Amino acid sequence: MFARRVVALAALALLAVVALALAVSWVSAVDPNAIAIARRLRAPSWEFWGGTDQLGRDVMLRVAYGGRYSLMIGFATAIGAVVLGTLLGMLAGYFRWLDGPVMRVVDAMMAFPDILLGIALVAVLGPSLWNVVLALVIVYTPRVARVARASTLVLRDLLYVDAARALGTPTWRILWMHVLPGLVSPVLVQLTFIFAYAILAEAGLSFLGVGVPPAIPTWGTMIAGSLSYMDKAFWTIVYPGLAIVLTSLSLQIVGDGIRDSLDPKLRKNT
User: Fold this and answer.
1) pLDDT digit of tens for each residue in the chain (270 aa)?
2) Taking the alpha carbons of 245, 246, 248, 249 in that order, is the dihedral positive or negative?
3) Rounded CA gap, 21 and 119, in Å?
4) pTM here?
5) List of residues 6+ apart from 241 with CB closer than 8 A
6) Helix, coil or strand: residue 83
7) What is the 8-class DSSP label of residue 167?
8) Alpha carbon of 197 to those of 10, 17, 185, 190, 270: distances in Å?
9) Which residues, in sequence order, are CB contacts of 143 under 8 Å at separation 6+?
């Protein structure tokens, strides 16, 4: 019961972050990038709940707007990695002749730390929002591929799949109608985890100066841009940092809850 309440609380927190990011433009017409040097580095107050940064911009307003970009990067990365990883894992698990070559490439990619591989890919592709998404998709696709392959190896030998092959059902139809539905549960859990990983990875890349351009107010670029002022205005880093932690933690708790609810053994124990 306690675990379910924690998952529900995490889901509510996640919904609140998403709602704030989507509704901020309706609530406030202020440009989050508008510079006002006269009010730079003001502490949090009733006028500016999150204080102002080194250029006089409202920190809380920029956190809300930055949520759009950070959430979009995380969601796009998760969808791209899940689609590509599921396809690769399903093909590798079903066709034995593809298993070896595909999984050796996957293992080689997973041998590199995520952040190092992301830095290398962004360095090749160039620092832009969609290049960061593409790099992170490449980084996290192997995770999904391994999970999808493991599930496909089990599904491939089940009786109803053997029956479909014996009846002469085309291979593409077997994969679509019989194998893919069995991958939804484990892949859905991976989607929530990769969503969280991508938000953290984008923040890390931006902090290192190889991620999204500074003009785009993601949570990562906000922290990177305010690093030199953290001793004078700690709030410029605290609020975007809290947004990253809250969103990532909520996503992982929700992912754990989805995994527990979809696994009969775990559901029975809880």
Assistant:
1) 667 888 899 999 999 999 988 888 787 777 777 888 888 888 888 888 888 888 888 888 899 998 999 999 999 999 999 999 999 999 999 998 888 899 999 989 888 888 889 999 998 888 888 999 999 999 999 999 999 999 999 988 888 888 888 888 888 888 898 889 889 888 998 999 999 999 999 988 988 888 888 888 889 888 888 888 888 888 889 999 999 999 999 999 998 888 878 765 555 555
2) positive
3) 27
4) 0.88
5) 219, 223
6) helix
7) T
8) 16, 17, 19, 10, 27
9) 81, 85, 110, 190, 194
Token code pair at residue 207: 């902090």
| Residue 104 CA: distances (Å) to CA of 115, 142, 149, 183, 204 | 21, 10, 13, 21, 28
d(CA 72, CA 212): 12
Q: Which residues pair with 58 in a beta bridge?
A: 52
Q: How is residue 264 written in tokens?
A: 């009969």
Tokens read off for 146: 């391994």
* Closest residue by Cα to residue 187 from 92, 91, 82: 82
Please give the Cα distance from 80 to 98 (Å, whole number). 21
